[in-house]
Amino acid sequence: MRKYRKFIDSLRIHVRGGSGGMGYPKFGGVGGKGGDVYVEAIAEQTLSKTLRAEPEKRWLGGVGGNSRKVRILGEPGEDKIVPVPLGTAIMLDKFRTLGETNKIGDKILVAKGGAGGSPANQFNGQHGQALNLTLELKLIADIGLVGFPNAGKSTLLKAISRAKPKIASYPFTTIRPNIGIVEYPDKRQISIADLPGLVEGSWANMGMGHKFLRHVERTNLLLYIVDINGFKMGPQYPHRTPIENVILLNKELELYKDDLLDKPCVLLVNKMDDDKTEEKLKRFLQEYSDLAELCQEFPEEMQPKRLVKFDDIIPCSAKFNMDSVEYIKKRLRKLLDIYDDEINCRLTTTSAVKAEVDNKLREKSKQFV
Known about the structure:
The chain is α/β, with parallel strands linked by helices. It folds into 2 domains: 10-137, Spo0b-associated Gtp-binding Protein, Chain: A; 143-368, Rossmann fold (3-Layer(aba) Sandwich), CATH 3.40.50. The chain is built from 8 helices and 14 strands. Helix 4 (242-256) links the parallel strand 12 (221-227) and strand 13. Helix 7 (322-347) packs antiparallel against helix 8 (351-365). The chain is elongated and about 90 Å long.
């Protein structure tokens, strides 16, 4: 019996529309059209379930019926549905996307069935369209956690939600995305995606690279997390200070997709576990106030062309200080509510005042600090 991984976020499949049925020249009969193949977003679907439904990964439309004496018009072939989860991109190749499933019920035609036999094609049924596709899941969550390994992302997710990610004191504990749900007393729920830690060069697909960076594209808010003590990937790597980690995270997202820097974002300074870290925090905040000048001291390849603008900087100890965790929960909800209001405003606002709305957004968020 085949074993399937618990989490799959990319699946290669073959799709082929059904062949059209043969026509009937003597009576001018037309064969049935071949069945089409569609990709459709289904509630509670996963790519693992998609694979289990068709282990050979071949999705074929039904063959159209032949025209015959008792049925001049052949029956159309049965359409085939490829069930996929919400947030799936259908890729023809790395540069071409056929479509995306952004809401439940989205249905995308990926392979047309062949025409039935008729006078136009000498009554010969035509072959259906055949394609090799890649289904790429891009998690849809309210908040995406971004940081280098061992910054405390999984610890935070466990502290503020019902998720149970693996946690340990070594890098790369998280090897697949985790989704946590934060529930508030009034039953409001917010989803948070914990992604495996980035490495320097993730933008170029080093480490897990694009495999997980794509998951931050559909989040409404990015929560950057850095360790106040800095981070060192391994013996052969230099130790990076917290401010260097902020700059490198900025650069990685910029190189991967520049418009990610326009997303609302918050910086979480984690592992404020003792009195010694207070001095480190003061030094970090001072360096952050001079961030533009500090960047000039870095090698050119590490300098972001555009600096990310955080709506808030929150120090916390996700492991030992639950008061700081509770504050984060309230603060993130407040910010998301602000952004939702602004989005609704944009939908009903003329283009002449949209720029003014955008300019006021970040200032408005500061009122709740």
